[in-house]
Amino acid sequence: MSGLDIGIIVFYMAGMLFIGIYSGKKQQDSDDYFVAGRKAGVFSITCLWLSSWIGGASIVGTAERAYSMGITAVWYVVVIAVSLVIFAFTFTGTIKRLSTKLNLLTYPDFIESRYDSKTRMVATICTILGMIGFVASQFLAGGSTLSALTGWDSKVSLIVVAAVITFYTAFGGLLAVTYTDWVQTVILLLGIVILGVPLSIMHMDGGISAIQSLPDSYMNLGAWGWPSIIALGLTTLFSFYTNMDGYTRCIAAKDVKTSRRGSLLAAAGIFIIAVSATFLGLSTKVIMPDLPDSRNALSYLIIHIFPQGLRGIVVVGIIAAIMSSADILMLTASTNLTKDIYQRYINRDVTDKKIRHLSTCCSFGIGFVALLFAMYRQDIIDVLFIALTINSAGLFLPTVLGVCWKKANSSAAFYSAACSLAVVLFWFLGNALKWGKIFETDSFWPGLAVSALLFFPISIWGRQTPEEKAKLKVFQSAGKQGGKEE
Known about the structure:
Layout: H1 3-26, H2 30-35, H3 42-53, H4 56-69, H5 75-90, H6 92-102, H7 107-114, H8 117-150, H9 154-202, H10 226-242, H11 244-252, H12 256-287, H13 297-305, H14 310-346, H15 352-376, H16 380-392, H17 396-404, H18 410-432, H19 444-461, H20 466-480
Helix pairs in contact: 1-9, 1-14, 3-9, 3-11, 3-12, 3-14, 4-8, 4-12, 4-14, 5-10, 5-12, 6-11, 6-12, 6-20, 7-8, 8-9, 8-14, 8-15, 8-16, 8-18, 9-12, 9-14, 9-15, 10-16, 12-13, 14-15, 18-19
């Protein structure tokens, strides 16, 4: 890349660091740090949703799959858009109303306000493990992209991306994430959709119709394998209901209407980006059919077709997508450690100032652990799928049915979530150590099966305490209430 392009990238990263320092000085309390003061508008909520779900796996991973498999790659991001629409209409209002009424700050807060502290601990563990996996996948995507485009060593690139994201997130909190995501969303759309797609069409002989020259298998929507596509779709949908960063967006919104509108606008943007990233992968296959490494397909395309200067802007757009996903995920895990473990179980009387300082330290620690995980495991989508499964398989039923099913009780929630988590981790271990063909099955299915087999019988035959019954009434009221906010 030219000195101008590298200069644009360096300037962008320096700008993100400046925003982090600026945001840190504006914070007044932990609400500012964790949920941006609970007053984010529609544009901010839209950007926060887009930035968390459109990251390295969505852009780099989708283009890679499209290059090697065809249009079936579009499923990865399409299921995100569909899942977000469903979540927006069914659960955003409930979360916002309950968070306002009960002063909830985190997803484990939500779980304990319906069940008990034991179930809260399981939810906290699942969330922390899942968030570390999510962050690691974004570090991987950022490192590989930066390395391919700049020629820097892959480990150096990985460390640079991890360091910048960790620094501005640790010091700036959700205010920094919100401010940086405004910039990053605009750059992402400019680089990938407005510039990337038209330029790739211009460089294909015959224009867009050149896609038809690819093998027939590239036009098969099910080439990924329908069992894997269905598992991915359900895992993604379920994770919206159990992923703490989604709760953070709902809580940060100034009201229910803002939360829902921001979610729906983000879903539309996600769909556009899904189609664009898939098209770029297919375009790369047409223009450069024999690349040595499909993982860097998008990077090769940028180097090949983009002029000097614009190349740097598009690279910044990709890095923006990666960084804007990693920052909120890192902050989510930090919130779990400080609010859901330290303040909840170790020091209930901790001051607000100490919580914010502790959160800064936790963000650095999470960034370091995610960096180590990224160095150990190199497949972006594989790492992301692990994180999605840990978050969704065991927690979906207790979360959703806890709002609308009066028989759901704490024992059912705890045992189903804890046993499901154990099965998922055991399944991953069995697959990694090649224990047998059965472990090649997506771990989501055995995890969900164990959760269902325990949750329903224990709920039906178990009993609720008077305290649980009182909590249920609050939840059902929030689920049904429309109010002026709707």
